[in-house]
Amino acid sequence: MEASNLFYRDPALYDAVQEDNSAAATCQALIERHRPRAATLADFGCGTGRDLAILAKRFECVGVDLQPGLVEYAHRIRPALDIRIGDMRTVRLQRCLDAMTCLGNSLAYIHENDDISAVFATFAAHALPGALLVLCSPVSPIIRPEATSATVRTPTGSAQVTISYEWDLRTQINTMHRHWALPSGDDARDTVRRRVLFPRELEHYASSAGFEVLDMLNGPPSATLTGPVAYTVARYAP
Ligand SMILES: C[S@@+](CC[C@H](N)C(=O)[O-])C[C@H]1O[C@@H](n2cnc3c(N)ncnc32)[C@H](O)[C@@H]1O
To answer: Which stretches make up the Methyltransferase domain (predicted)?
Structure first.
Protein backbone atom coordinates (compact mmCIF):
# COMPACT_ATOMS: atom_id res chain seq x y z
CA MET A 1 0.00 0.00 0.00
CA GLU A 2 2.87 2.34 0.89
CA ALA A 3 4.38 2.04 -2.59
CA SER A 4 1.10 2.96 -4.29
CA ASN A 5 0.55 6.36 -2.67
CA LEU A 6 2.92 9.30 -2.28
CA PHE A 7 1.15 10.37 0.92
CA TYR A 8 1.90 7.05 2.59
CA ARG A 9 5.57 7.36 1.62
CA ASP A 10 5.63 10.94 2.96
CA PRO A 11 3.15 11.27 5.88
CA ALA A 12 4.30 14.83 6.68
CA LEU A 13 3.28 15.88 3.16
CA TYR A 14 -0.05 14.10 3.68
CA ASP A 15 -0.71 16.09 6.86
CA ALA A 16 0.32 19.37 5.23
CA VAL A 17 -1.88 18.92 2.16
CA GLN A 18 -4.86 17.86 4.30
CA GLU A 19 -4.45 20.75 6.75
CA ASP A 20 -7.79 22.36 5.79
CA ASN A 21 -9.70 19.08 5.92
CA SER A 22 -12.97 19.50 7.83
CA ALA A 23 -13.72 15.79 8.42
CA ALA A 24 -13.04 15.85 12.16
CA ALA A 25 -15.26 18.91 12.69
CA THR A 26 -18.04 17.41 10.56
CA CYS A 27 -17.78 14.13 12.38
CA GLN A 28 -17.86 15.82 15.77
CA ALA A 29 -20.96 17.82 14.75
CA LEU A 30 -22.70 14.60 13.69
CA ILE A 31 -21.85 12.90 16.99
CA GLU A 32 -23.04 15.95 18.98
CA ARG A 33 -26.29 15.84 17.01
CA HIS A 34 -27.00 12.12 17.37
CA ARG A 35 -25.17 11.05 20.55
CA PRO A 36 -24.35 14.17 22.53
CA ARG A 37 -23.24 12.26 25.62
CA ALA A 38 -20.60 10.24 23.76
CA ALA A 39 -17.35 10.13 25.70
CA THR A 40 -15.24 7.48 23.97
CA LEU A 41 -14.35 7.06 20.28
CA ALA A 42 -12.35 4.66 18.10
CA ASP A 43 -11.13 5.73 14.64
CA PHE A 44 -10.44 2.83 12.26
CA GLY A 45 -8.00 3.55 9.43
CA CYS A 46 -6.82 6.66 11.27
CA GLY A 47 -3.70 7.23 9.13
CA THR A 48 -1.43 9.86 10.66
CA GLY A 49 -3.94 10.61 13.44
CA ARG A 50 -4.66 14.11 12.09
CA ASP A 51 -8.43 13.85 12.65
CA LEU A 52 -7.94 11.92 15.88
CA ALA A 53 -5.86 14.77 17.32
CA ILE A 54 -8.85 17.09 16.84
CA LEU A 55 -11.41 14.57 18.10
CA ALA A 56 -9.23 13.80 21.15
CA LYS A 57 -9.92 17.33 22.44
CA ARG A 58 -13.53 16.24 22.94
CA PHE A 59 -13.48 12.43 23.29
CA GLU A 60 -11.24 9.82 24.86
CA CYS A 61 -9.86 8.32 21.65
CA VAL A 62 -8.07 5.32 20.26
CA GLY A 63 -6.95 4.94 16.65
CA VAL A 64 -6.05 1.91 14.54
CA ASP A 65 -4.22 1.80 11.23
CA LEU A 66 -2.78 -0.99 9.10
CA GLN A 67 0.42 0.74 8.03
CA PRO A 68 3.29 0.67 10.54
CA GLY A 69 4.97 3.63 8.79
CA LEU A 70 1.95 5.89 9.39
CA VAL A 71 1.54 4.69 12.97
CA GLU A 72 5.26 5.30 13.71
CA TYR A 73 4.92 8.81 12.24
CA ALA A 74 1.78 9.43 14.34
CA HIS A 75 3.59 8.30 17.51
CA ARG A 76 6.45 10.69 16.76
CA ILE A 77 4.33 13.74 15.83
CA ARG A 78 1.36 13.15 18.14
CA PRO A 79 2.79 11.22 21.11
CA ALA A 80 -0.22 11.89 23.32
CA LEU A 81 -2.53 9.87 21.07
CA ASP A 82 -3.28 6.18 21.56
CA ILE A 83 -2.73 4.81 18.04
CA ARG A 84 -2.15 1.14 17.34
CA ILE A 85 -1.19 -0.96 14.36
CA GLY A 86 -4.12 -3.16 13.39
CA ASP A 87 -6.29 -4.42 10.57
CA MET A 88 -9.85 -3.15 10.81
CA ARG A 89 -11.11 -6.47 9.46
CA THR A 90 -9.82 -8.37 12.47
CA VAL A 91 -8.63 -6.03 15.24
CA ARG A 92 -10.25 -6.37 18.65
CA LEU A 93 -9.43 -3.69 21.22
CA GLN A 94 -11.21 -5.60 24.02
CA ARG A 95 -13.45 -2.64 24.84
CA CYS A 96 -16.70 -1.05 23.68
CA LEU A 97 -17.08 2.62 22.89
CA ASP A 98 -19.68 5.34 22.30
CA ALA A 99 -18.59 6.27 18.79
CA MET A 100 -16.67 4.72 15.93
CA THR A 101 -15.35 6.54 12.91
CA CYS A 102 -13.82 5.49 9.61
CA LEU A 103 -12.92 8.67 7.76
CA GLY A 104 -11.02 9.84 4.71
CA ASN A 105 -12.19 6.96 2.51
CA SER A 106 -10.45 4.32 4.66
CA LEU A 107 -13.37 1.92 4.14
CA ALA A 108 -12.83 2.15 0.37
CA TYR A 109 -9.48 0.37 0.73
CA ILE A 110 -11.43 -2.78 1.61
CA HIS A 111 -12.38 -4.19 -1.79
CA GLU A 112 -13.96 -7.59 -1.22
CA ASN A 113 -17.52 -8.14 0.08
CA ASP A 114 -16.47 -10.61 2.79
CA ASP A 115 -13.80 -8.20 4.04
CA ILE A 116 -16.34 -5.36 4.15
CA SER A 117 -18.62 -7.58 6.27
CA ALA A 118 -15.62 -8.28 8.53
CA VAL A 119 -15.03 -4.54 8.99
CA PHE A 120 -18.66 -4.00 9.98
CA ALA A 121 -18.31 -6.92 12.41
CA THR A 122 -15.33 -5.03 13.91
CA PHE A 123 -17.50 -1.93 14.30
CA ALA A 124 -20.17 -4.02 16.02
CA ALA A 125 -17.61 -5.71 18.28
CA HIS A 126 -16.57 -2.29 19.63
CA ALA A 127 -20.02 -0.70 19.92
CA LEU A 128 -21.82 0.03 23.17
CA PRO A 129 -25.61 -0.21 22.89
CA GLY A 130 -26.71 2.91 20.99
CA ALA A 131 -23.15 3.66 19.80
CA LEU A 132 -22.78 5.90 16.77
CA LEU A 133 -20.86 4.95 13.63
CA VAL A 134 -19.69 7.73 11.29
CA LEU A 135 -18.22 6.74 7.92
CA CYS A 136 -16.86 9.01 5.24
CA SER A 137 -16.59 7.01 2.04
CA PRO A 138 -17.23 7.05 -1.72
CA VAL A 139 -20.90 6.41 -2.54
CA SER A 140 -20.64 6.99 -6.29
CA PRO A 141 -17.77 6.79 -8.76
CA ILE A 142 -15.84 9.73 -10.13
CA ILE A 143 -16.05 9.39 -13.89
CA ARG A 144 -14.18 12.04 -15.84
CA PRO A 145 -13.21 11.58 -19.46
CA GLU A 146 -10.35 14.08 -19.17
CA ALA A 147 -7.50 14.36 -16.69
CA THR A 148 -7.62 17.46 -14.47
CA SER A 149 -4.71 19.46 -13.09
CA ALA A 150 -4.36 21.54 -9.96
CA THR A 151 -1.69 23.34 -7.98
CA VAL A 152 -1.18 22.00 -4.48
CA ARG A 153 0.68 23.89 -1.76
CA THR A 154 3.30 21.75 -0.03
CA PRO A 155 5.77 22.69 2.73
CA THR A 156 8.54 22.98 0.12
CA GLY A 157 6.59 24.93 -2.53
CA SER A 158 3.90 24.39 -5.13
CA ALA A 159 3.36 21.00 -6.74
CA GLN A 160 1.39 20.41 -9.91
CA VAL A 161 -0.86 17.38 -9.69
CA THR A 162 -2.67 15.78 -12.62
CA ILE A 163 -5.45 13.32 -11.83
CA SER A 164 -7.37 10.86 -13.97
CA TYR A 165 -9.90 8.19 -13.04
CA GLU A 166 -10.98 4.75 -14.22
CA TRP A 167 -14.22 3.06 -13.23
CA ASP A 168 -14.71 -0.69 -13.30
CA LEU A 169 -18.43 -1.36 -12.81
CA ARG A 170 -17.93 -5.10 -12.31
CA THR A 171 -15.68 -4.70 -9.26
CA GLN A 172 -16.94 -1.22 -8.27
CA ILE A 173 -13.33 -0.10 -8.04
CA ASN A 174 -12.68 3.55 -8.91
CA THR A 175 -8.97 3.89 -9.68
CA MET A 176 -7.32 7.28 -9.35
CA HIS A 177 -4.03 7.89 -11.17
CA ARG A 178 -2.10 10.87 -9.86
CA HIS A 179 0.99 12.38 -11.39
CA TRP A 180 2.93 14.82 -9.23
CA ALA A 181 5.39 17.37 -10.52
CA LEU A 182 7.08 18.17 -7.20
CA PRO A 183 8.80 21.44 -6.23
CA SER A 184 12.14 19.55 -6.15
CA GLY A 185 11.75 18.88 -9.87
CA ASP A 186 11.10 15.18 -9.18
CA ASP A 187 8.05 13.33 -10.46
CA ALA A 188 5.92 10.91 -8.47
CA ARG A 189 3.02 8.73 -9.49
CA ASP A 190 0.38 7.00 -7.47
CA THR A 191 -2.45 4.63 -8.17
CA VAL A 192 -5.20 4.58 -5.58
CA ARG A 193 -7.90 1.91 -5.89
CA ARG A 194 -11.10 2.66 -4.00
CA ARG A 195 -14.16 0.46 -3.72
CA VAL A 196 -17.41 2.38 -4.12
CA LEU A 197 -20.23 1.27 -1.84
CA PHE A 198 -23.50 2.73 -3.06
CA PRO A 199 -25.95 3.97 -0.39
CA ARG A 200 -28.15 0.88 -0.39
CA GLU A 201 -25.08 -1.35 -0.11
CA LEU A 202 -23.83 0.62 2.87
CA GLU A 203 -27.28 0.24 4.39
CA HIS A 204 -27.10 -3.52 3.83
CA TYR A 205 -23.65 -3.97 5.41
CA ALA A 206 -24.62 -1.73 8.31
CA SER A 207 -27.94 -3.43 9.06
CA SER A 208 -26.40 -6.92 8.73
CA ALA A 209 -24.02 -5.93 11.55
CA GLY A 210 -26.77 -4.46 13.75
CA PHE A 211 -26.54 -0.79 12.76
CA GLU A 212 -29.50 1.34 11.73
CA VAL A 213 -28.58 4.07 9.25
CA LEU A 214 -29.81 7.43 10.53
CA ASP A 215 -28.47 9.70 7.84
CA MET A 216 -26.38 9.90 4.67
CA LEU A 217 -25.28 13.32 3.62
CA ASN A 218 -22.59 15.32 1.96
CA GLY A 219 -20.32 17.16 4.35
CA PRO A 220 -20.13 19.56 6.03
CA PRO A 221 -23.56 18.40 7.22
CA SER A 222 -26.11 19.26 4.59
CA ALA A 223 -29.42 17.62 3.83
CA THR A 224 -28.38 16.53 0.36
CA LEU A 225 -26.73 13.35 -0.84
CA THR A 226 -25.08 13.76 -4.21
CA GLY A 227 -21.73 12.03 -3.74
CA PRO A 228 -19.15 11.15 -4.77
CA VAL A 229 -18.17 11.03 -1.08
CA ALA A 230 -20.66 11.06 1.78
CA TYR A 231 -20.97 10.72 5.51
CA THR A 232 -23.03 7.79 6.73
CA VAL A 233 -24.30 7.98 10.29
CA ALA A 234 -25.60 4.79 11.91
CA ARG A 235 -26.65 3.72 15.38
CA TYR A 236 -25.88 0.33 16.92
CA ALA A 237 -29.24 -1.23 17.68
CA PRO A 238 -28.77 -5.00 17.44
C1 LIG B 1 -6.87 7.67 2.65
S2 LIG B 1 -6.21 7.14 4.17
C3 LIG B 1 -7.23 8.00 5.35
C4 LIG B 1 -6.54 8.15 6.68
C5 LIG B 1 -7.28 9.01 7.68
N6 LIG B 1 -8.56 8.44 8.06
C7 LIG B 1 -7.45 10.40 7.12
O8 LIG B 1 -8.59 10.81 6.84
O9 LIG B 1 -6.44 11.07 6.94
C10 LIG B 1 -6.75 5.46 4.30
C11 LIG B 1 -6.17 4.77 5.52
O12 LIG B 1 -6.78 3.50 5.68
C13 LIG B 1 -5.80 2.63 6.18
N14 LIG B 1 -6.21 1.25 5.96
C15 LIG B 1 -6.42 0.63 4.78
N16 LIG B 1 -6.78 -0.65 4.97
C17 LIG B 1 -6.84 -0.83 6.32
C18 LIG B 1 -7.16 -1.94 7.15
N19 LIG B 1 -7.51 -3.14 6.63
N20 LIG B 1 -7.11 -1.77 8.49
C21 LIG B 1 -6.75 -0.57 9.03
N22 LIG B 1 -6.43 0.51 8.29
C23 LIG B 1 -6.48 0.38 6.95
C24 LIG B 1 -4.54 3.01 5.41
O25 LIG B 1 -3.37 2.54 6.03
C26 LIG B 1 -4.67 4.53 5.41
O27 LIG B 1 -4.05 5.11 6.52
So the answer is: 43-129
Q: How many CB atoms lie within 10 A of CB 146?
A: 6
Answer whether 26 contacts ligand 1 (Cβ < 6 A). no
* DSSP per-residue codes, 59-101: SEEEEEES-HHHHHHHHHH-TTS-EEE--TTT---S--EEEEE
6 CB less than 6 Å from ligand 1? no
Cβ(49) – ligand 1 distance below 6 Å: no
pLDDT, one tens digit per residue, over 73-88 is 999 999 999 999 999 9
User: Among the atoms of ligand 1, which is closest to the Cα of residue 43?
Assistant: 6
Produce one character per residue of 203-229: b if its CB has 16 or more CB atoms within 10 Å, e if not. bbbbeebbbebbbbbbbeeeeeeebbb
Which residues touch 105 (CB under 8 Å, ≥6 apart)? 136, 137, 138, 194, 229
Work out the number of other CB atoms within 10 angstroms of the CB of residue 3: 9
The set of residues, in sequence order, having a beta carbon less than 8 Å from that of 197 and lying 6+ positions away, is: 107, 108, 116, 137, 138, 139, 172, 205
Amino acid at residue number 21? N
115 and 89 in contact (C-beta within 8 Å)? yes
For residue 113, report the distance from its CA to the centre of ligand 1, in Å: 17
Ligand 1 centroid, distance to 238 Cα (angstroms): 26
pLDDT tens for residues 154-182?
Answer: 888 999 999 999 999 999 999 999 999 99
